[in-house]
User: Fold these one by one.
Assistant:
Number 1:
Amino acid sequence: MLVQCRDLFMGEITRLPLDTELDLSSVEFRGMQPFTQPVHVTGEITVRAGVVQLSVQASLVFEGQCDRCLAPFTHAYTIPMEHVLVATLANEENDDYILLDNYQLNLDDLVLADILLELPYKSLCREDCRGLCCRCGKNLNEGACDCETRTIDPRLEVLSQLLN
Ligand SMILES: [Zn+2]
Ligand SMILES: [Zn+2]
């Protein structure tokens, strides 16, 4: 979605409310398409002392697969976003400002970039996910497996494999 910001920069208006839904369903992340539901963006763009500022929050549902136990899960996130928008930039390398193209803000690109920064490094169904047993593959969130209770000396383990 392109937001036309020309009136803000020209001083015609000092506030532009935003309340919109973005379709990020085709976005691939870690081999999946986790944003199946529309991303709700609410907030405003304001002009104060000549500074054009975007202040919104993005509400989304992340549908992923747990990196540890492989179970599908959904998490809701609310991500606050603050950015200063500029129409021209003397130094193109400046990351602090969002440079608009012809006074237009590409809201999809900006929201997606912020979401990807905010998402945790690992996709986990829950913080303390116990994962799968590396021997039998049982989901340890559903209870312990037999391998866990059987404590075998690793050297004896090798021996018992040879005997088998
Ligand atoms: Zn898990
Ligand atoms: Zn096991």
Number 2:
Amino acid sequence: MGAQGLQFDTNRIELSAGAPSTIHFENNDPGIQHNIAIFTDSSLGTNLFRGEIVTGPAAVDYRIPPLEPGTYYFHCDVHPTMSGSVVVKAAGGGGPPPTATPATGGGGGGGGGTANPSTVTAQGLAFSTTEIALPPDAPSTIHFENKDAGVSHDIAIYTDSSLGTNLFRGQIITGPASIDYSIPPLKPGTYYFHCDVHPTMDGSVTVG
Ligand SMILES: [Cu+2]
């Protein structure tokens, strides 16, 4: 994986449980320091791994110790809003995991650490989730809570991380405040969201 433009190129890292693994990390930001640190959760409860900070352009192979199955949190210690989830899957028996199966099942991102995917909180310049699941072809609602006093945030949805086409732009609210965003019907697919004020606060929208 890599970092460029103060963003990671993924907000999801998948590892196998119970065995050491390696993350090849490329920092493509010249003169800027990044790393990957893994924590039990987004409150940074317990640090499970802390990668050496590297100044771009540079690459490093991080050797990750064996982790229990579960969903964890990673960020860049230098830029904590660069963040995402680490999914550690049981090695299990049999064949390879069904990585080719898209998450088309109803309800979307189950099993993760997010209680209700249609509620998103912004706190400490970070969203509470990097994955929002919405129903296909129907209007939906995202309840958005901005808990950052005096700080403005919104949620905007785009076709992809290049911001190709804007699909929804929520009203910017200054915390503490909350709002119900009415999302128009979207086709099944995977989209991108971020805060227009803080574009490194971002994640994916799964419609399906
Ligand atoms: Cu923001």
